[in-house]
Structure formats: C-alpha cells, structure tokens
Amino acid sequence: QDAAGRAELRRPHAVRAAQADLYALDAGERAPVSVGLLCRPSDLDHVLAAVAAHAAWTDDVVVLLDAAAASPSAVSAEGFPHDAVRVAARPLDGDFAAQRNALQDLAHHPWMLQLDADETLDLAVGRRLPALAALAEAGDVLSVGLARRNRVDGLLSDVFPDVQYRLNRKAVRYEGRVHERPALDGGWPRSLVALHGAIEHHLGRAHVLARSRRYESLAPGRGRPEEEAALLRPFRA
After folding, report:
1. How do 191-203 and 119-121 pair as beta strands?
2. Which terminal residue of the chain, N or C, has fewer Cβ atoms less than 10 Å from its own Cβ?
3. Measured between alpha carbons, how far is 143 from 162 in angstroms, rounded to an integer?
C-alpha cells in the first residue's frame, strides 16, 4: 500500500478506505525474539525443564527469580547452546510492573516475549513470533497482544480471550503494581493483537481464590475481585 494507505491502516476510525496485501506470516521477514520468564525459586527446575520447547525459535532465554538480587548466570538447558539460557534474581516486592521491566532489560534481542511460570506457549505459536515481531516493527508497533486461555484445573474459564501484551520491544516499560500493562509512547495505536495462537495459563482453584485477594492487598481498588467468579466459570461461547 502507499504512504496514505499505511497511515489509514493505523487509524481504524478514519474515513478513507485503506488497501493492503495479505501474505502468509511464515513467509515474511523475521526479527530475533528473546524469551523472559518470571518465577519463584521453587519453580525454577520446572521452568528450566520446559524451556526446551522454545529452542526451535529463540537463542536467548532469561529467567528472573523472585529472590535476593543476583546477576545473570548461564545454566545448561536442553536444546540450547552454552550461555543461551541465563538465570538472574530480583525481589518482586509486590510490584509486578517493576519486575517485568527488570526482565525486559535482560533481553539480548530487540524484542522479548514474557511468560510466567504457570504459562506455556505451543511450538507452532512460538515459531511465528519472530515474523510477528518483524511485522510489528515494520508498522512502528511497540507491543503485541496475545490471547490467553485461562485453564482452571484443566477447564477453559470464561475469562477469554484475556489478551496479554507480552511481546514487546525491549525498551517498552510496564506500569501497574498488579494487572500490569505496557505504557506506550503514542498510546494504543502503537500496539496490535495477534490473530493466531494463545498463551496457555494453568491455574488451580485454590490459586484463583487467593489471587484477587492478594492483588487487592498490593494495589487497593485494582485487584479485580469480580474476576474470580469468571475464572471459576467454564467458558461459554
């Protein structure tokens, strides 16, 4: 499309119709993407055992523990070369945005996908992320949202698609002690939502019952206690 068309595509409520070409994402340009994982020390072995699933599409993984501060150190992980997987530590101190920002800073690549210890990503979804990052970069986009399937004791909950903005340029900063979101220079027009795949979020009923109460204690008025009922309710199409 021409320059005017590109401008209109970035303004979904504009009056001029825009024209664009469709192409298979897999055939597009690719941008390297780091993977960042947040977890507690007790979850580290589980997280490291699971990173092998990402070896097909990234060569940089960093795990940030909620623990006393420690600089990144390389660890062995199946499928990755030496130094490709690192573990660092920093106290969470009740501020999820600050923890995500610290993790962003540890990325070796210009883009980072962040996951929590109880989240997984299908290989087919991961393989497309470098192309998705390149597409976003070409459109001056800073942040990409992915749907998240919240599964409580294995059942898909009614909080869906629950878009999470987890694929971001390294410089993007999160804000909000809980239910954190990227604060984008230029606002929401510099974000997009991916139309393929989803993050899988594995929850237990006990965790759901405690989650909103904990978040509310960390950030009064922002814990979303009303979300508890929806998480415990099976998905309704």
Report:
1. antiparallel
2. C
3. 16
Please give the full DSSP string across the chain, using - where no structure is assigned. --HHHHHHHT-TT-SS--------GGGS----EEEEEEE-GGGHHHHHHHGGGGTTT-S-EEEEESSS-EEEEE---TT--TTSEEEEE---TT-HHHHHHHHHHT-SSSEEEEEETTEEE-HHHHHHHHHHHHHHHHTT--EEEEEEEEEETTEEBSS-S--EEEEEETT-EEE-SSS-EEE-TT-GGGEEEEEEEEEEEEE-HHHHHHHHHHHHHHSTT-S-TTHHHHHHSBP--
Residue type, 132: L
Per-residue pLDDT averaged across 18-32, rounded? 80
Q: Let me know: does 179 contact 216? Beta carbons within 8 Å.
A: no
Please give the model's pTM, rounded to 2 decimal places. Answer: 0.89
Q: What is 29-232's CATH number? A: 3.90.550
Residue-wise pLDDT tens digits, 126-174: 999 999 999 999 999 999 999 999 999 999 999 999 999 999 999 999 9
Between CA 18 and CA 15 the distance in angstroms is 9
Between CA 135 and CA 141 the distance in angstroms is 8
